[in-house]
Amino acid sequence: MSARKLKVVLTRRLPDAVETRMRELFDAELNLKDQPMDRAALHAAVQRAEVLVPTITDVIDADLINGAGDQLKMIANFGAGVDHIDIDAAVARGIIVTNTPGVLTEDTADLAMSLILAVSRRIVEGAQVIADNRFEGWTPTWMCGRKLWGKRLGVVGMGRIGQALARRAKAFGLQVHYHNRKPVSALIEEELGATYWDDLDQMLARMDIVSLNCPATKDTHHLLSAERLARLQPHA
After folding, report:
1. What is the model's pLDDT at position 2?
2. In this predicted model, what pLDDT tens digit does every residue of 121-140 receive, in sequence order?
Protein backbone atom coordinates (compact mmCIF):
# COMPACT_ATOMS: atom_id res chain seq x y z
CA MET A 1 0.00 0.00 0.00
CA SER A 2 1.55 3.29 -1.13
CA ALA A 3 1.89 6.24 1.22
CA ARG A 4 -0.58 9.07 0.79
CA LYS A 5 0.82 11.99 -1.15
CA LEU A 6 0.45 15.60 -0.04
CA LYS A 7 -2.25 17.58 -1.84
CA VAL A 8 -0.54 20.44 -3.67
CA VAL A 9 -2.44 23.08 -5.66
CA LEU A 10 -0.63 25.19 -8.27
CA THR A 11 -2.30 28.49 -9.14
CA ARG A 12 -0.61 28.86 -12.58
CA ARG A 13 1.22 26.83 -15.21
CA LEU A 14 4.84 26.24 -14.24
CA PRO A 15 7.70 24.90 -16.41
CA ASP A 16 7.06 21.34 -17.58
CA ALA A 17 10.01 19.92 -15.67
CA VAL A 18 8.72 21.46 -12.44
CA GLU A 19 5.18 20.22 -12.95
CA THR A 20 6.36 16.71 -13.86
CA ARG A 21 8.53 16.45 -10.76
CA MET A 22 5.71 17.73 -8.57
CA ARG A 23 3.38 15.11 -9.99
CA GLU A 24 5.98 12.46 -9.13
CA LEU A 25 6.30 13.62 -5.53
CA PHE A 26 2.83 14.91 -4.67
CA ASP A 27 -0.86 14.74 -5.47
CA ALA A 28 -0.33 17.90 -7.53
CA GLU A 29 -3.31 19.71 -9.02
CA LEU A 30 -2.09 21.62 -12.09
CA ASN A 31 -3.60 24.69 -13.72
CA LEU A 32 -3.33 23.48 -17.32
CA LYS A 33 -5.35 26.38 -18.75
CA ASP A 34 -3.01 28.87 -17.04
CA GLN A 35 -5.92 31.18 -16.25
CA PRO A 36 -5.28 33.26 -13.09
CA MET A 37 -7.41 32.08 -10.20
CA ASP A 38 -10.03 34.58 -9.11
CA ARG A 39 -10.83 35.19 -5.47
CA ALA A 40 -13.39 32.40 -5.28
CA ALA A 41 -11.02 29.90 -6.88
CA LEU A 42 -8.20 30.84 -4.49
CA HIS A 43 -10.53 30.48 -1.54
CA ALA A 44 -11.57 27.03 -2.74
CA ALA A 45 -7.91 26.10 -3.26
CA VAL A 46 -6.89 26.88 0.33
CA GLN A 47 -9.86 24.80 1.50
CA ARG A 48 -8.43 21.62 -0.05
CA ALA A 49 -4.68 22.18 -0.44
CA GLU A 50 -2.09 21.07 2.08
CA VAL A 51 0.44 23.09 0.11
CA LEU A 52 -0.53 26.09 -2.02
CA VAL A 53 1.91 27.11 -4.76
CA PRO A 54 1.03 30.69 -5.79
CA THR A 55 2.90 33.16 -7.96
CA ILE A 56 3.53 36.89 -7.56
CA THR A 57 0.21 37.76 -9.22
CA ASP A 58 -1.84 35.99 -6.53
CA VAL A 59 -2.87 38.12 -3.55
CA ILE A 60 -2.65 35.85 -0.52
CA ASP A 61 -3.92 38.23 2.16
CA ALA A 62 -5.10 37.74 5.75
CA ASP A 63 -8.71 37.11 4.78
CA LEU A 64 -7.71 34.33 2.40
CA ILE A 65 -5.31 32.76 4.90
CA ASN A 66 -7.78 32.97 7.79
CA GLY A 67 -10.39 31.29 5.58
CA ALA A 68 -8.10 28.35 4.79
CA GLY A 69 -8.77 24.87 6.04
CA ASP A 70 -6.74 23.43 8.91
CA GLN A 71 -5.00 21.12 6.43
CA LEU A 72 -3.08 24.02 4.80
CA LYS A 73 0.44 23.80 6.17
CA MET A 74 2.58 25.59 3.60
CA ILE A 75 2.47 28.40 1.02
CA ALA A 76 5.35 27.70 -1.36
CA ASN A 77 5.66 30.81 -3.50
CA PHE A 78 6.98 30.49 -7.06
CA GLY A 79 9.03 33.68 -6.98
CA ALA A 80 11.64 35.58 -5.00
CA GLY A 81 9.37 38.14 -3.34
CA VAL A 82 6.68 37.55 -0.74
CA ASP A 83 5.13 41.03 -0.58
CA HIS A 84 1.87 39.60 -2.00
CA ILE A 85 1.55 37.21 0.96
CA ASP A 86 0.49 38.30 4.46
CA ILE A 87 3.34 36.69 6.38
CA ASP A 88 1.99 37.68 9.80
CA ALA A 89 -1.36 36.05 9.10
CA ALA A 90 0.39 32.89 7.91
CA VAL A 91 2.61 32.74 11.02
CA ALA A 92 -0.43 33.21 13.26
CA ARG A 93 -2.01 30.14 11.62
CA GLY A 94 1.20 28.11 11.82
CA ILE A 95 1.56 28.07 8.02
CA ILE A 96 5.08 27.96 6.60
CA VAL A 97 5.85 30.40 3.76
CA THR A 98 8.73 29.68 1.38
CA ASN A 99 10.14 31.51 -1.63
CA THR A 100 13.00 31.17 -4.13
CA PRO A 101 15.57 33.89 -3.39
CA GLY A 102 18.65 34.21 -5.55
CA VAL A 103 17.54 32.19 -8.56
CA LEU A 104 16.72 35.26 -10.67
CA THR A 105 19.57 37.53 -9.55
CA GLU A 106 21.62 37.30 -12.74
CA ASP A 107 18.53 37.35 -14.99
CA THR A 108 17.16 40.49 -13.33
CA ALA A 109 20.55 42.18 -13.63
CA ASP A 110 20.61 41.25 -17.33
CA LEU A 111 17.25 42.97 -17.83
CA ALA A 112 18.30 46.04 -15.85
CA MET A 113 21.44 46.39 -17.96
CA SER A 114 19.35 45.86 -21.10
CA LEU A 115 17.07 48.73 -20.07
CA ILE A 116 20.06 51.00 -19.44
CA LEU A 117 21.43 50.19 -22.90
CA ALA A 118 18.03 50.53 -24.59
CA VAL A 119 17.31 53.96 -23.10
CA SER A 120 20.81 55.37 -23.51
CA ARG A 121 21.25 54.14 -27.10
CA ARG A 122 17.56 54.67 -28.10
CA ILE A 123 17.31 51.07 -29.27
CA VAL A 124 13.55 50.72 -28.95
CA GLU A 125 12.93 54.01 -30.75
CA GLY A 126 15.21 53.00 -33.62
CA ALA A 127 13.66 49.56 -33.93
CA GLN A 128 10.18 51.10 -34.05
CA VAL A 129 11.21 53.41 -36.89
CA ILE A 130 12.34 50.38 -38.89
CA ALA A 131 9.19 48.41 -38.01
CA ASP A 132 7.03 51.33 -39.15
CA ASN A 133 9.00 51.61 -42.41
CA ARG A 134 9.93 55.21 -41.59
CA PHE A 135 13.70 54.91 -42.02
CA GLU A 136 14.82 57.39 -44.69
CA GLY A 137 18.56 56.82 -44.55
CA TRP A 138 21.39 57.56 -42.16
CA THR A 139 22.50 61.05 -41.22
CA PRO A 140 25.25 62.06 -38.75
CA THR A 141 22.74 63.46 -36.26
CA TRP A 142 19.92 60.93 -36.60
CA MET A 143 18.89 58.92 -33.51
CA CYS A 144 22.00 59.86 -31.57
CA GLY A 145 21.94 58.30 -28.14
CA ARG A 146 24.31 58.75 -25.23
CA LYS A 147 27.41 56.65 -24.72
CA LEU A 148 27.77 54.75 -21.47
CA TRP A 149 31.55 54.78 -21.18
CA GLY A 150 32.66 57.09 -18.38
CA LYS A 151 29.13 57.87 -17.16
CA ARG A 152 28.09 57.53 -13.52
CA LEU A 153 25.58 54.88 -12.48
CA GLY A 154 23.84 55.29 -9.13
CA VAL A 155 22.64 51.96 -7.74
CA VAL A 156 19.97 52.33 -5.07
CA GLY A 157 20.10 49.10 -3.09
CA MET A 158 23.39 47.19 -3.34
CA GLY A 159 22.09 43.72 -2.55
CA ARG A 160 22.52 40.64 -4.75
CA ILE A 161 20.88 42.22 -7.80
CA GLY A 162 22.52 45.60 -7.31
CA GLN A 163 25.94 43.98 -7.17
CA ALA A 164 25.23 41.83 -10.23
CA LEU A 165 24.17 44.95 -12.14
CA ALA A 166 27.27 46.82 -10.96
CA ARG A 167 29.53 44.08 -12.36
CA ARG A 168 27.86 44.41 -15.75
CA ALA A 169 28.00 48.19 -15.61
CA LYS A 170 31.71 48.16 -14.81
CA ALA A 171 32.33 46.06 -17.93
CA PHE A 172 30.61 48.80 -19.97
CA GLY A 173 32.91 51.44 -18.51
CA LEU A 174 30.39 52.99 -16.12
CA GLN A 175 31.55 54.45 -12.83
CA VAL A 176 29.58 52.73 -10.09
CA HIS A 177 28.12 54.67 -7.17
CA TYR A 178 25.61 53.31 -4.68
CA HIS A 179 23.31 54.13 -1.80
CA ASN A 180 22.47 51.42 0.72
CA ARG A 181 21.40 51.14 4.35
CA LYS A 182 25.06 50.44 5.07
CA PRO A 183 28.22 50.09 2.96
CA VAL A 184 29.01 46.72 1.44
CA SER A 185 32.27 45.05 2.40
CA ALA A 186 35.53 46.69 1.39
CA LEU A 187 36.28 43.63 -0.77
CA ILE A 188 33.09 44.09 -2.82
CA GLU A 189 33.63 47.85 -3.09
CA GLU A 190 37.13 47.21 -4.43
CA GLU A 191 35.90 44.59 -6.91
CA LEU A 192 33.22 46.92 -8.28
CA GLY A 193 35.21 50.14 -7.94
CA ALA A 194 32.09 51.44 -6.20
CA THR A 195 31.65 54.69 -4.30
CA TYR A 196 29.29 54.70 -1.31
CA TRP A 197 26.89 57.57 -0.55
CA ASP A 198 25.09 57.62 2.77
CA ASP A 199 23.00 60.57 1.53
CA LEU A 200 20.72 59.53 -1.35
CA ASP A 201 19.89 63.12 -2.32
CA GLN A 202 23.55 64.00 -2.77
CA MET A 203 24.15 60.95 -4.93
CA LEU A 204 21.11 61.49 -7.16
CA ALA A 205 22.20 65.00 -8.09
CA ARG A 206 25.48 63.70 -9.51
CA MET A 207 24.39 60.61 -11.45
CA ASP A 208 23.85 60.13 -15.19
CA ILE A 209 21.84 56.93 -14.69
CA VAL A 210 19.96 55.66 -11.63
CA SER A 211 18.85 52.07 -11.08
CA LEU A 212 16.44 51.18 -8.28
CA ASN A 213 17.28 47.72 -6.92
CA CYS A 214 15.78 47.69 -3.44
CA PRO A 215 12.78 45.68 -2.22
CA ALA A 216 9.29 47.17 -2.47
CA THR A 217 8.37 47.81 1.18
CA LYS A 218 6.56 50.46 3.19
CA ASP A 219 9.94 52.11 3.82
CA THR A 220 10.89 52.24 0.12
CA HIS A 221 7.43 53.20 -1.20
CA HIS A 222 7.86 56.44 -3.23
CA LEU A 223 11.57 56.47 -2.35
CA LEU A 224 12.12 58.37 -5.60
CA SER A 225 9.63 61.13 -4.86
CA ALA A 226 8.90 64.09 -7.13
CA GLU A 227 11.32 66.14 -5.02
CA ARG A 228 14.08 63.61 -5.50
CA LEU A 229 13.41 63.19 -9.22
CA ALA A 230 13.79 66.97 -9.50
CA ARG A 231 17.33 66.63 -8.14
CA LEU A 232 18.40 64.58 -11.15
CA GLN A 233 20.38 66.27 -13.88
CA PRO A 234 18.26 67.11 -16.96
CA HIS A 235 19.98 64.44 -19.08
CA ALA A 236 19.81 61.69 -16.43
Report:
1. 65
2. 999 999 999 999 999 998 99
Q: Where does a domain end: 98, 126, 160?
A: 98
212, β-bridge pairs: 156
Half-sphere exposure of 166 (CA within 13 A, CB side): 27
51 close to 8: Cβ distance less than 8 angstroms? yes
- Full-model pTM: 0.80
Q: In this structure, how many other beta carbons lie within 10 angstroms of the beta carbon of residue 159?
A: 15
Q: Given phi > 0 = left and psi -120 to 50 = alpha, else beta, which region is 179?
A: beta
In this structure, are 155 and 76 located in the same domain?
no
Assess whether 54 and 161 both reside in one domain. no
* Full strand arrangement of the beta sheet holding 74-76: 27-29, 7-10, 51-53, 74-76, 96-98
CA-nearest of 29, 28, 25, 30 to 2 is 25
